[in-house]
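Lab channel / #folding
Pinned by the channel admin:
"Please post every new chain as: sequence first, then the structure tokens as a reply. Keep commentary short and put observations after the output so the thread stays searchable."

First post following the new format, from NK:
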Amino acid sequence: QVQFVESGGCLVQAGGSLRLSCVVPGFPSGSYAMGWYRQAPEKQRELVVSISRSGIMNYRDSVKGRFTITRDNAKNTLYLQMNSLKPEDTAAYYCYAIGLHGPWGLGTQVTVSS
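Reply from TO:
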């Protein structure tokens, strides 16, 4: 069973930066497009950014210019560098393989204070 293990979230002030990591042990993440999602309280989960197998990235408009997704296929690890954080970025963040069907990880909580 595939496990997504997210980490790096914490409480940060507006304008600050965080780097999230997602390890997927034993999973050929290089064979899938991958994405970072987030879910704020009482809201639906939304796709923040995706990266294709060939490295093409697609960002949600609200994070363009502030967030950067990278992947290290050799380490089965996905990263999300988040700069200039805003209170509206507050959410639980998850990574997932796009097109996969299975359980999600526990996510990592990002809280941005104003």
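NK: The mean pLDDT is 94.
TO: also worth noting, The chain has no helices and ten strands.
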